[in-house]
Structure of Oxygen-independent coproporphyrinogen-3 oxidase:
Amino acid sequence: MVAEQVPRALPVSDVHFGGGTPTTIAPSDFLALMELLRHCFAFKKSATIAIEIDPRGVTPEMVETLQAAGVSRASIGVQSFDPIVQRSVNRAQSEVLTASVVETLRQHGINRINFDLLFGLPHQTVRSCVDTARTALAMRPDRLAVFGYAHVPSYMKRQRQLDERSLPDNIARAEQAAAIANTLVSAGYHQIGLDHFALPNDELALAQKAGRLRRNSLGYSADTCKTVIGLGPSAIGRLREGYVQNEIATTSYHEHVRAGRLATSKGYCLSTEDRLRAAIIERLMCDLHADIPAICAAHGFDPIPLLNSAGRLGMLAEDGIVDVEGGLIRVKQEHRFVVRAVAAAFDTYLDRTPIS
Protein backbone atom coordinates (compact mmCIF):
# COMPACT_ATOMS: atom_id res chain seq x y z
CA MET A 1 0.00 0.00 0.00
CA VAL A 2 2.86 2.38 0.76
CA ALA A 3 4.57 1.55 -2.53
CA GLU A 4 1.42 2.58 -4.39
CA GLN A 5 1.84 6.09 -2.95
CA VAL A 6 5.53 6.36 -3.89
CA PRO A 7 6.85 7.11 -7.39
CA ARG A 8 8.39 3.92 -8.73
CA ALA A 9 11.42 5.89 -9.94
CA LEU A 10 12.25 6.99 -6.39
CA PRO A 11 15.51 5.10 -5.64
CA VAL A 12 16.05 3.38 -2.30
CA SER A 13 19.55 3.98 -0.95
CA ASP A 14 19.23 2.57 2.58
CA VAL A 15 17.12 0.01 4.41
CA HIS A 16 17.33 -0.26 8.19
CA PHE A 17 15.68 -3.05 10.17
CA GLY A 18 15.32 -1.81 13.74
CA GLY A 19 12.80 -1.84 16.51
CA GLY A 20 14.58 -4.20 18.87
CA THR A 21 15.44 -7.69 17.64
CA PRO A 22 14.43 -8.10 13.98
CA THR A 23 16.60 -11.23 13.66
CA THR A 24 13.96 -13.17 15.64
CA ILE A 25 11.98 -13.43 12.40
CA ALA A 26 12.22 -16.83 10.70
CA PRO A 27 15.01 -16.87 8.07
CA SER A 28 12.58 -17.85 5.30
CA ASP A 29 10.25 -15.00 6.27
CA PHE A 30 13.12 -12.51 6.24
CA LEU A 31 14.11 -13.59 2.71
CA ALA A 32 10.49 -13.30 1.59
CA LEU A 33 10.25 -9.83 3.12
CA MET A 34 13.39 -8.65 1.32
CA GLU A 35 12.08 -10.05 -1.97
CA LEU A 36 8.82 -8.17 -1.43
CA LEU A 37 10.64 -4.91 -0.67
CA ARG A 38 12.81 -5.23 -3.76
CA HIS A 39 9.69 -5.96 -5.82
CA CYS A 40 7.81 -2.93 -4.48
CA PHE A 41 10.64 -0.40 -4.48
CA ALA A 42 13.49 0.52 -6.83
CA PHE A 43 16.68 -0.36 -4.93
CA LYS A 44 19.98 1.19 -5.93
CA LYS A 45 22.68 -1.36 -6.69
CA SER A 46 24.73 0.26 -3.94
CA ALA A 47 21.88 0.26 -1.41
CA THR A 48 22.97 -0.40 2.17
CA ILE A 49 20.91 -2.99 4.04
CA ALA A 50 21.42 -2.72 7.79
CA ILE A 51 19.94 -4.68 10.67
CA GLU A 52 19.96 -4.57 14.46
CA ILE A 53 21.10 -7.78 16.15
CA ASP A 54 20.83 -9.18 19.65
CA PRO A 55 23.77 -11.62 19.60
CA ARG A 56 22.18 -13.80 22.27
CA GLY A 57 19.59 -15.15 19.84
CA VAL A 58 21.10 -14.98 16.37
CA THR A 59 21.71 -18.37 14.70
CA PRO A 60 24.19 -19.48 11.99
CA GLU A 61 21.20 -20.02 9.69
CA MET A 62 20.08 -16.44 10.23
CA VAL A 63 23.55 -15.10 9.45
CA GLU A 64 23.56 -17.06 6.19
CA THR A 65 20.13 -15.62 5.45
CA LEU A 66 21.35 -12.07 6.09
CA GLN A 67 24.18 -12.65 3.63
CA ALA A 68 21.80 -14.03 1.01
CA ALA A 69 19.47 -11.05 1.50
CA GLY A 70 22.28 -8.58 0.84
CA VAL A 71 22.69 -7.23 4.38
CA SER A 72 25.95 -5.31 4.60
CA ARG A 73 25.82 -3.66 8.05
CA ALA A 74 24.91 -5.08 11.46
CA SER A 75 24.33 -3.07 14.62
CA ILE A 76 24.98 -5.24 17.67
CA GLY A 77 23.52 -4.49 21.06
CA VAL A 78 26.19 -4.73 23.75
CA GLN A 79 25.23 -2.28 26.52
CA SER A 80 27.90 -3.48 28.98
CA PHE A 81 30.32 -6.40 29.34
CA ASP A 82 30.41 -6.04 33.14
CA PRO A 83 28.76 -9.21 34.58
CA ILE A 84 27.49 -7.29 37.62
CA VAL A 85 25.75 -4.74 35.40
CA GLN A 86 24.46 -7.49 33.13
CA ARG A 87 22.88 -9.35 36.03
CA SER A 88 21.22 -6.17 37.28
CA VAL A 89 19.48 -5.63 33.91
CA ASN A 90 18.93 -9.34 33.22
CA ARG A 91 21.10 -9.40 30.10
CA ALA A 92 23.77 -12.10 30.23
CA GLN A 93 26.02 -11.60 27.20
CA SER A 94 29.64 -12.69 27.30
CA GLU A 95 32.56 -11.23 25.42
CA VAL A 96 33.14 -14.66 23.83
CA LEU A 97 29.56 -14.82 22.50
CA THR A 98 29.68 -11.28 21.07
CA ALA A 99 33.08 -11.84 19.45
CA SER A 100 31.87 -15.11 17.93
CA VAL A 101 28.85 -13.41 16.34
CA VAL A 102 31.04 -10.58 15.00
CA GLU A 103 33.45 -13.10 13.46
CA THR A 104 30.61 -15.11 11.91
CA LEU A 105 29.11 -11.97 10.38
CA ARG A 106 32.44 -10.99 8.88
CA GLN A 107 32.97 -14.48 7.51
CA HIS A 108 29.67 -14.05 5.65
CA GLY A 109 30.63 -10.72 4.09
CA ILE A 110 28.82 -8.52 6.61
CA ASN A 111 31.90 -6.47 7.36
CA ARG A 112 30.44 -3.18 8.56
CA ILE A 113 29.82 -3.64 12.26
CA ASN A 114 28.27 -1.19 14.74
CA PHE A 115 28.20 -1.57 18.53
CA ASP A 116 25.69 0.05 20.89
CA LEU A 117 27.06 0.82 24.37
CA LEU A 118 25.20 2.30 27.34
CA PHE A 119 26.25 4.32 30.35
CA GLY A 120 24.17 5.16 33.41
CA LEU A 121 23.10 1.55 33.99
CA PRO A 122 22.60 0.11 37.50
CA HIS A 123 25.89 -0.57 39.31
CA GLN A 124 27.86 0.92 36.41
CA THR A 125 31.09 2.75 37.23
CA VAL A 126 33.68 4.68 35.26
CA ARG A 127 35.99 1.67 35.49
CA SER A 128 33.40 -0.78 34.18
CA CYS A 129 32.54 1.63 31.34
CA VAL A 130 36.19 1.90 30.32
CA ASP A 131 36.65 -1.88 30.54
CA THR A 132 33.58 -2.43 28.35
CA ALA A 133 34.86 0.10 25.80
CA ARG A 134 38.27 -1.61 25.69
CA THR A 135 36.66 -5.02 25.27
CA ALA A 136 34.57 -3.66 22.41
CA LEU A 137 37.65 -2.07 20.80
CA ALA A 138 39.35 -5.47 20.64
CA MET A 139 36.64 -6.49 18.13
CA ARG A 140 37.29 -3.32 16.08
CA PRO A 141 33.76 -2.27 15.11
CA ASP A 142 33.48 0.41 12.42
CA ARG A 143 31.17 2.51 14.58
CA LEU A 144 30.03 2.75 18.16
CA ALA A 145 26.96 4.53 19.46
CA VAL A 146 27.18 5.47 23.14
CA PHE A 147 23.82 6.25 24.69
CA GLY A 148 22.74 7.17 28.20
CA TYR A 149 20.34 4.74 29.84
CA ALA A 150 16.90 6.36 30.23
CA HIS A 151 15.06 5.19 33.33
CA VAL A 152 11.33 5.65 32.67
CA PRO A 153 9.57 2.88 34.64
CA SER A 154 6.20 4.58 34.14
CA TYR A 155 6.56 3.86 30.41
CA MET A 156 8.81 0.77 30.39
CA LYS A 157 7.22 -1.69 32.79
CA ARG A 158 10.21 -4.04 32.88
CA GLN A 159 12.31 -1.22 34.37
CA ARG A 160 10.22 -1.38 37.56
CA GLN A 161 12.23 -4.45 38.56
CA LEU A 162 15.45 -2.42 38.75
CA ASP A 163 16.79 -1.08 42.03
CA GLU A 164 16.77 2.69 41.49
CA ARG A 165 19.28 3.12 44.31
CA SER A 166 21.89 1.43 42.12
CA LEU A 167 21.55 4.00 39.33
CA PRO A 168 24.43 6.50 38.99
CA ASP A 169 23.57 10.16 39.49
CA ASN A 170 23.94 12.84 36.81
CA ILE A 171 27.52 13.67 37.75
CA ALA A 172 28.52 10.00 37.59
CA ARG A 173 26.72 9.61 34.25
CA ALA A 174 28.67 12.55 32.81
CA GLU A 175 31.94 11.06 34.07
CA GLN A 176 31.08 7.69 32.50
CA ALA A 177 30.21 9.26 29.14
CA ALA A 178 33.45 11.25 29.12
CA ALA A 179 35.51 8.20 30.08
CA ILE A 180 34.07 6.11 27.26
CA ALA A 181 34.61 8.95 24.79
CA ASN A 182 38.23 9.41 25.85
CA THR A 183 38.87 5.67 25.55
CA LEU A 184 37.45 5.47 22.04
CA VAL A 185 39.13 8.63 20.77
CA SER A 186 42.47 7.49 22.20
CA ALA A 187 42.04 4.29 20.15
CA GLY A 188 41.77 6.27 16.90
CA TYR A 189 38.02 6.69 16.55
CA HIS A 190 36.56 10.04 15.48
CA GLN A 191 33.85 11.48 17.69
CA ILE A 192 30.77 12.07 15.56
CA GLY A 193 28.38 14.67 16.91
CA LEU A 194 26.83 13.91 20.27
CA ASP A 195 27.03 10.17 20.74
CA HIS A 196 28.66 8.32 17.81
CA PHE A 197 32.24 7.25 17.16
CA ALA A 198 33.66 5.97 13.88
CA LEU A 199 36.92 4.81 12.35
CA PRO A 200 38.59 7.45 10.13
CA ASN A 201 37.61 5.67 6.89
CA ASP A 202 33.98 5.11 7.87
CA GLU A 203 31.26 6.95 5.94
CA LEU A 204 30.25 8.94 9.03
CA ALA A 205 33.77 10.22 9.63
CA LEU A 206 34.18 11.12 5.97
CA ALA A 207 30.80 12.88 5.90
CA GLN A 208 31.68 14.85 9.03
CA LYS A 209 34.99 15.92 7.52
CA ALA A 210 33.22 17.07 4.35
CA GLY A 211 30.54 18.97 6.30
CA ARG A 212 27.68 16.83 5.00
CA LEU A 213 26.83 14.78 8.09
CA ARG A 214 23.09 14.38 8.63
CA ARG A 215 20.92 13.43 11.61
CA ASN A 216 17.46 11.87 11.54
CA SER A 217 15.24 9.75 13.78
CA LEU A 218 17.67 6.83 13.39
CA GLY A 219 20.70 8.85 14.47
CA TYR A 220 23.64 10.17 12.47
CA SER A 221 23.82 9.38 8.77
CA ALA A 222 26.06 10.01 5.78
CA ASP A 223 23.09 9.66 3.44
CA THR A 224 21.71 12.82 1.84
CA CYS A 225 18.26 11.47 0.97
CA LYS A 226 15.32 13.70 1.83
CA THR A 227 12.72 10.94 2.21
CA VAL A 228 12.51 8.31 4.94
CA ILE A 229 9.66 5.79 4.78
CA GLY A 230 8.79 4.16 8.09
CA LEU A 231 7.17 0.73 7.98
CA GLY A 232 5.79 -1.02 11.06
CA PRO A 233 4.17 0.09 14.33
CA SER A 234 5.34 3.50 15.65
CA ALA A 235 7.72 4.03 12.68
CA ILE A 236 8.42 7.66 11.80
CA GLY A 237 8.70 8.83 8.20
CA ARG A 238 10.16 12.04 6.84
CA LEU A 239 8.71 13.38 3.62
CA ARG A 240 9.25 16.55 1.65
CA GLU A 241 6.24 18.19 3.31
CA GLY A 242 6.94 17.06 6.87
CA TYR A 243 6.75 14.08 9.21
CA VAL A 244 4.36 11.15 9.63
CA GLN A 245 4.11 8.41 12.22
CA ASN A 246 2.36 5.04 12.17
CA GLU A 247 0.06 3.70 14.85
CA ILE A 248 2.11 2.89 17.94
CA ALA A 249 0.03 -0.04 19.26
CA THR A 250 0.67 -3.25 17.33
CA THR A 251 -3.00 -4.30 17.51
CA SER A 252 -4.23 -1.00 16.09
CA TYR A 253 -1.55 -1.11 13.38
CA HIS A 254 -2.69 -4.60 12.31
CA GLU A 255 -6.34 -3.52 12.23
CA HIS A 256 -5.60 -0.71 9.79
CA VAL A 257 -3.50 -2.90 7.51
CA ARG A 258 -6.02 -5.75 7.50
CA ALA A 259 -8.72 -3.24 6.56
CA GLY A 260 -6.64 -2.07 3.59
CA ARG A 261 -5.77 1.30 5.12
CA LEU A 262 -2.41 2.93 5.64
CA ALA A 263 -1.52 2.75 9.33
CA THR A 264 -0.43 6.40 9.54
CA SER A 265 -1.78 7.87 12.78
CA LYS A 266 -0.49 11.44 12.69
CA GLY A 267 1.58 13.88 10.71
CA TYR A 268 2.99 17.37 10.79
CA CYS A 269 3.48 19.72 7.86
CA LEU A 270 6.65 21.79 8.14
CA SER A 271 6.46 25.55 7.74
CA THR A 272 9.29 27.55 6.18
CA GLU A 273 10.36 28.63 9.66
CA ASP A 274 10.32 24.99 10.81
CA ARG A 275 12.71 24.09 8.00
CA LEU A 276 15.04 26.92 8.96
CA ARG A 277 15.10 25.88 12.61
CA ALA A 278 15.58 22.23 11.64
CA ALA A 279 18.60 23.17 9.52
CA ILE A 280 20.17 25.09 12.42
CA ILE A 281 19.50 22.28 14.90
CA GLU A 282 20.93 19.67 12.53
CA ARG A 283 24.16 21.60 12.02
CA LEU A 284 24.57 22.07 15.77
CA MET A 285 23.95 18.38 16.44
CA CYS A 286 26.27 17.29 13.62
CA ASP A 287 29.06 19.89 13.62
CA LEU A 288 28.76 21.47 17.10
CA HIS A 289 28.63 24.84 15.39
CA ALA A 290 26.25 26.73 13.14
CA ASP A 291 26.57 29.86 11.01
CA ILE A 292 23.17 31.40 11.71
CA PRO A 293 23.38 34.28 9.17
CA ALA A 294 24.44 31.89 6.38
CA ILE A 295 21.67 29.38 7.16
CA CYS A 296 19.09 32.17 7.44
CA ALA A 297 20.20 33.60 4.10
CA ALA A 298 19.76 30.19 2.45
CA HIS A 299 16.17 30.04 3.78
CA GLY A 300 15.26 33.68 3.15
CA PHE A 301 15.14 34.81 6.81
CA ASP A 302 16.62 37.70 8.76
CA PRO A 303 18.97 36.24 11.40
CA ILE A 304 18.55 39.08 13.92
CA PRO A 305 14.97 38.27 15.10
CA LEU A 306 15.88 34.59 15.30
CA LEU A 307 18.95 35.18 17.43
CA ASN A 308 17.07 37.64 19.63
CA SER A 309 14.33 35.05 20.24
CA ALA A 310 16.82 32.36 21.30
CA GLY A 311 16.95 33.53 24.90
CA ARG A 312 18.71 30.41 26.15
CA LEU A 313 21.82 31.26 24.16
CA GLY A 314 22.74 34.09 26.51
CA MET A 315 22.54 31.81 29.53
CA LEU A 316 24.55 29.10 27.76
CA ALA A 317 27.21 31.65 26.83
CA GLU A 318 27.36 32.94 30.41
CA ASP A 319 27.83 29.36 31.62
CA GLY A 320 30.75 28.95 29.20
CA ILE A 321 29.04 26.23 27.16
CA VAL A 322 28.95 28.12 23.85
CA ASP A 323 30.74 30.96 22.11
CA VAL A 324 28.55 33.33 20.10
CA GLU A 325 30.24 35.80 17.79
CA GLY A 326 28.73 37.49 14.76
CA GLY A 327 25.93 34.93 14.61
CA LEU A 328 28.38 32.02 14.58
CA ILE A 329 27.60 29.62 17.41
CA ARG A 330 30.21 27.13 18.62
CA VAL A 331 29.72 24.51 21.30
CA LYS A 332 32.90 24.10 23.30
CA GLN A 333 34.44 20.65 22.93
CA GLU A 334 34.32 19.90 26.65
CA HIS A 335 30.56 20.61 26.66
CA ARG A 336 29.57 18.59 23.59
CA PHE A 337 27.47 16.28 25.79
CA VAL A 338 24.98 19.11 26.40
CA VAL A 339 24.65 20.10 22.74
CA ARG A 340 20.95 19.20 22.97
CA ALA A 341 20.51 22.16 25.32
CA VAL A 342 22.08 24.44 22.71
CA ALA A 343 19.90 23.02 19.93
CA ALA A 344 16.85 23.49 22.17
CA ALA A 345 17.40 27.24 22.04
CA PHE A 346 16.11 27.11 18.47
CA ASP A 347 13.20 24.73 19.05
CA THR A 348 10.12 26.91 19.19
CA TYR A 349 7.95 24.04 20.44
CA LEU A 350 9.83 23.40 23.69
CA ASP A 351 8.97 24.84 27.07
CA ARG A 352 11.04 27.96 27.62
CA THR A 353 11.78 27.36 31.30
CA PRO A 354 15.31 28.42 32.30
CA ILE A 355 18.09 25.83 32.27
CA SER A 356 19.00 24.87 35.80
Remarks:
- The chain has 13 helices and 15 strands.
